Amino acid sequence: MKSRHQTAAIGVVAVLALLAGCSSTKSPEQAAPTDTSGVKVTGKSNSLFGFLKPYRIDIQQGNFVSKEMVAQLRPGLTRDQVRFVLGTPLLTDMFHANRWDYDFRLAKGNGEIMTSRVSVFFKDDLLDHVEGGENLPTESEYLTLITDSKVGAKASFGADKDKADSEVKPASPVAPSSATGK
Asked: What residue spans carry the region label Disordered (predicted)?
């Protein structure tokens, strides 16, 4: 009788161990390759038994750099001006003081991983050139990506969005009759 309970307990422990081991289904070969040409997006994770999915939060690491931010960069900008446009660099290397790296990684809860890298190079404390930054998303595309909404969709803050829009009236360009000095 005791061996039957021990066998059931071992079976339960084995099943729990198998379920705990399913936290990651990606092999090392599926990892994002290191490339500085722009944004890389890798695949989505599989679910357990086709329907069980553990909840996973989105994890953002590094500096998001948009297409608009890179468009503002031009040779001759000072370090302070570059820091104002792109933010504080994620990596500054004391052996390469003339190089700032802006790495970004967004691991979505569904297993999709987005990475990008932009490197800026200085010569005599002035911006010399930028590497990476091709195919970067715009700020609106990034917001759409992190909110899982459709491209071009506007966020609604209330249940009666149409009713709220119909109640808003534009300001009249003509002054009211009481304000004309009569």
From this structure: 158-182
Q: What is the pLDDT of residue 78?
A: 94
**pLDDT tier, 44 (very low <50, low <70, confident <90, very high otherwise):** low
70-75 long-range contacts, CB within 8 A, separation 24+: 70/118, 70/130, 70/133, 70/136, 73/120, 73/127, 73/130, 74/127, 75/126, 75/127, 75/128, 75/129
CA pair distance 125, 93, nearest whole angstrom: 15
Cα–Cα distance list, 143 to 48, 54, 138 (Å):
29, 24, 9
Q: What is the pLDDT of residues 60-112, one digit of tens each?
A: 999 899 999 999 999 999 999 999 999 999 878 889 899 999 999 999 888 88
CATH, domain 32-45+54-145, list 3.30.1450, 3.40.50, 3.30.530, 1.10.260? 3.30.1450
Question: Structure pTM?
Answer: 0.57
Each domain of the chain, given as residue ranges in start order, spans 32-45+54-145
Residue closest to 127 by CA, chosen among 96, 104, 98 = 98
**DSSP conformational letter for 178:** G
